[in-house]
Amino acid sequence: MNWRPVLLLGAFALAGSLLLALTWQLTADRIAEQERQATLRQLAELLPQPLYDNDPLLETLRLPAGTIPGLSGPVTGWVARKQGHITAWLLNLTTAEGYNGNIRLLVGLRPDGQLLGVRVTTHNETPGLGDGIDLRRSDWILHFAGKALGRPPAERWAVKKDGGDFDQFTGATISPRAVVKAVRNLLQWYANHPEVLQQPPAEEVSP
Predict the structure, then answer these.
(1) What's the CA angle centered on 191, arms 186 and 197, to 5 degrees?
(2) In what side-by-side order are the strands of the sheet with 85-98?
């Protein structure tokens, strides 16, 4: 039997596997670094430097799925401190109520329940309609800064079509409604369980 073709085929297969593994490793590292840089940019937008003297990215927390009613999956985040005292949290939330599925949010929250701001980090909303929730498309998301559960009152935390104070988009109500509802759910939960976020950071924190 002539083993040469078999050996050549095996050598090509091995070389291809090694090349694929190397490419994946290089790509994974690059993607991870891009995600880290994106997180740092969003952190800088929502968390003014005077508010903290620690490295928030080194102080993380994780709330198990189901901790905050109305949100999907676990909630992850970071803790900001000034002279040892908590000054804010940055929380990654997911709502499944977008028009085209999940919308992921980054929310800056102060211990008094006031919002530092909200950003949409990922979504699949319809271009030209629901994607107005994205800061790259409109400034709608900026209007959350400075608001709290009592500003406006809880019953007004809805889009105007539902009797609330928040604008919707022409021809697209579902996307802004999902974002407003997700933020309201967070604020209502925090009002009832403020001690959860104020615990020392741990891998799993639950009320």
Answers:
(1) 70
(2) 60-63, 75-82, 85-98, 101-109, 115-122
Q: What is the pLDDT of residue 182?
A: 97
Q: What's the CA gap between 134 and 132, in Å, rounded?
A: 5
Contact 167, 138 (CB under 8 A): no
Kindly give the parts of the chain with pLDDT less than 50. 202-207
Residue 164 confidence (pLDDT):
95
Q: Which tokens is 131 given? A: 């994607």
What pLDDT is stored for residue 54 in this prediction? 92
Cα 182 from chain centroid (whole Å): 11
- pLDDT at 26 (0 to 100): 65
Encode burial over 20-47: b for 16+ CB neighbours within 10 A, e otherwise.
Answer: eeeeeeeeeeeeeeeeeeebeebbeebb
Contact 56, 47 (CB under 8 A): yes
Cα atoms in the Cβ-side hemisphere of radius 13 Å centred on 132: 17
Do 115 and 148 touch, CB atoms closer than 8 A? yes
Locate the domains of the chain by residue range. Answer: 1-46, 49-197
